[in-house]
Amino acid sequence: MIDVQDAYLKNVQANYRYYCYHVNNPIKSKPDWIPSKFHVYLCNVVDEFINRETESPVEILLINTPPQHGKSRTITETLPSYFLCKYPDKSVIEISYGDDLAERFGKSNLEKVKEFGGLFGVSVDPKKSTSKEFQIAGHRGRMISRGIGSALTGY
After folding, report:
1. End-to-end CA, the chain
2. R_g of the chain, CA atoms, integer Å
3. pLDDT value at residue 29
4. Strands, E assignment, 2-116
5. Cβ–Cβ contacts within 10 Å for residue 29, how many?
6. CA–CA gap between residue 24 and residue 50 (Å, rounded)
7. Dihedrals phi, psi of 57, to nearest 5 degrees
8. How does 126-151 read in b/e, with b if 16+ C-beta sit within 10 Å?
9. What is the pLDDT of residues 30-53, one digit of tens each?
10. Mean pLDDT over all residues of the chain?
11. Going edge to edge, which strands form the sheet with 92-96?
12. Is residue 140 left, alpha or beta, with left meaning phi > 0 and alpha meaning psi from -120 to 50?
């Protein structure tokens, strides 16, 4: 017999929409992230993009929607943590228009990896753990968050 909790957690590990829901809705009476049809579509596109095999050294997914449609919450505050948990030897560079915003996005992802990385068998390296840059313990994967104009040469 399949345990419902185990089945749910397997979906969180395998499906970006489930991950978004799980990490953005702490246990309380009112959920913070309620997916609309747009969010479901966006999560499905992201899932397909990050999980497909490719020989190309660079793949780019551009997301262009009007303000206040949930891009920051659904993508910038959540996707890097999911990607690093699934692929702990890969890296993410997040660029925002300002250092403060970049740090906010970095902190959000850092907190998600700290809290939910165990579901994927990963954790944050305590020696390399800031909102501007953190690394996955025992792996090469890391996230770097910077504002436009910041030095990124070598990363």
Report:
1. 47
2. 16
3. 61
4. 92-96
5. 4
6. 20
7. -70, -20
8. eeeeebbbbbbbebebbbbbbeeeee
9. 677 888 899 999 999 999 999 888
10. 90
11. 92-96, 142-147, 133-136, 124-129
12. alpha
